[in-house]
Amino acid sequence: MIRLVKRPMPSKFWSWTTPLVAVIATMIAGGLLFAILGKNPVEAIRVIFWDPLFGPNADYFRSQLLVKAAPLILIACGLAVGFRAGIWNIGAEGQYIIGAIFGASLALAVYPAESWFLFPAMVVLGAIGGLLWGLIPALLKVVFGTSEILVSLMLVYVAQNLLAYMAFGPLKNPEGYGFPGSRNLQGYPSAFNDELMAGTGVHWGVLAALGAVVAIYVLMQRHIAGFRIRVAGEAPRAARYAGVVPARLIVFCLCLSGALAGMAGLFEVSGPSGQITDSFNVGYGYTAIIVAFLGRLHPVGILLAGLLMALTYIGGDMAQLMLGLPSAAIQVFQGMLLFFLLGFDLLTNYRIRIGGARA
Amino acid sequence: MIIGGIDIITLISMLMVASTPVLLAATGELVAEKSGVLNLGVEGMMITGAVAGFATAVSTGSPVLGFVGGALAGAAMAMLFAILTQVFLSNQTATGLALTLFGLGLSALIGKPFEGVRPPATGKVPFGPLSDIPVLGRILFSHDWVVYLSLLLVAVTWAFLKFTRAGLILRAVGENHDAAHALGYRVIAVRCAALAFGGALAGLGGAYLSLIRVPQWTEGMTAGAGWIALAIVVFASWRPERALIGAYLFGGITALQLQLQAAGYAIPVHLLSMAPYVLTIVVLVLLSVVHRRGVQAAPAALGRSFHAAS
């Protein structure tokens, strides 16, 4: 007879081991999935996880790794703070879109004026855009008690439609021969979020992501606010006695994650993507949720998890190109990873006892 | 009857069809939440049901089998959720999100070969002379069988929760799992059954989207319908009869929005398409205002894991 005994404290060891176990389990299950799809599982796993890092053209792929990981890490850092406090912002995708619209609108409005402070202003506007979009569920929750989960998610669809409206309407490129989509910011030097060193993939968003990791680390581990957030998540009643004001916490967490997601959107639209189109967002806001959990809601963990997820994106593209693996297979793969992680988390919170002895 | 370029009878008739997917999903989720489990994976179960139903219907040529397939696929997804949250005691919010992300990926994978395919058509129920009644005939007696099934399921769910002993046990488990456990009820088994029912209805709703409402398969076609179903459960204060009102209200806005697009009003399409989502938020807010003064309607044990200590 197998029994579960709750641990008095979550196990530190398992807390950091489960992500690794989950990754290995996902590779096995993913291998099975690829085998069902008629691909050689070993080859598929190698193409996804090994070739981008150490295979031919690895230099290019390593730079792409940073490009893809940056938005994931930036968004996940913000989400993790909220998740720690039990505040579920799952609308990062919407905040990402609004941030991009806000920042890009400024550039498109003043085009073709050149100035060194255009780009910083865009970043600030991007953050404000995301922040405001995150403020909506926060205020509705504080004032009316509405679920932030549902509201933040509904706002993703609103943002998506707004994005399409902008791409087909107000922000459409006047010299675009009627095609939807804005001017390409890559051709606008003051607004272009270019690589800082050629060939490395490092643009301002990558630096911002690293900055966010450090800042969130300091906030959560070294600052009283971080302590309050953790207490609020783990023992809400105790937190009230410790002087935590839930309303302030909700507004803070949603605004922080919104602002970071908005910045991520701006870095993407002014850099790798270049244009406001109705489909420039590729779901980083959702994948960042997986990144946050896989990184154990800890900034350093998120850094590693973000790189791993970016690797699955790049490896997935490669596998699509070389093996004809459908692109959706990677989405399934990422979903499975989260499942395994949540399942194996049992080991963190419970001891498994075999035998009928009474506890 | 035409007002402002919009035929009201067509609108109401369309409303019933537009509401059916969310009505089914919301009814299922309502039962699951009544048992104390918050499954945020409705969107994932719906889209899996949509693709499974579509694939089954196309390969067998039978829409009925398609609906069965969709329901089974939805239930299978719900069982995955049940294993993780009930056996492995994982966090329900996170697992629900995982289910949605997984479902979206899985459905895209399965659906690839079915893009651009036309599903076998489902006919309208032959009501004979009934459907010739002016006004009422077009509104009430001109639909396919699933619309009537969804209404029947709402009625059955209502009666089950209100009048049967099993319904009472399910509600007891959702209100206080420790007390229910002490009385000898099998909390985990009840919750798994409720989840499976919820998944089956979500899958059915998804299959309705891909087989009748649209009808074709496109990636991500549920477009938030599962989340709206979750909002409807809150709107309904966990009562099936109110879920019907919520779903029809939502369906009404969707139908109206489509009619406005068709009638050629000078409102940009994308702004009209926002309407159902914005409305959902507005309704949630209005409802929270009402609830502030009234009773707490949510099942007391909603979202909490059950672990028998001894």
From TrEMBL, chain A:
It holds the Pfam family BPD_transp_2. Keywords: Cell membrane, Membrane, Transmembrane, Transmembrane helix. The chain crosses the membrane at residues 68-87, 94-111, 117-140, 149-168, 202-220, 241-264, 284-311, 323-344. GO terms for molecular function: transmembrane transporter activity. It is found in: Cell membrane. It is a multi-pass membrane protein. One of its GO terms (cellular component) is plasma membrane. InterPro entries: ABC_transp_permease. Its main location: membrane. PANTHER family: ABC TRANSPORTER, PERMEASE PROTEIN, GUANOSINE ABC TRANSPORTER PERMEASE PROTEIN NUPP. This is ABC transporter permease.
TrEMBL record, chain B:
InterPro entries: ABC_transp_permease. One of its GO terms (cellular component) is plasma membrane. Pfam families: BPD_transp_2 (PF02653). It comes from the Bacteria. The chain crosses the membrane at residues 6-25, 37-58, 64-84, 96-114, 145-163, 183-209, 221-238, 245-267, 273-290. It is found in: Cell membrane. It is a multi-pass membrane protein. GO terms for molecular function: transmembrane transporter activity. Coiled coil: none annotated. Its main location: membrane. Keywords: Cell membrane, Membrane, Transmembrane, Transmembrane helix. The keyword Cell cycle does not apply. This is ABC transporter permease. It comes from Paenirhodobacter populi.
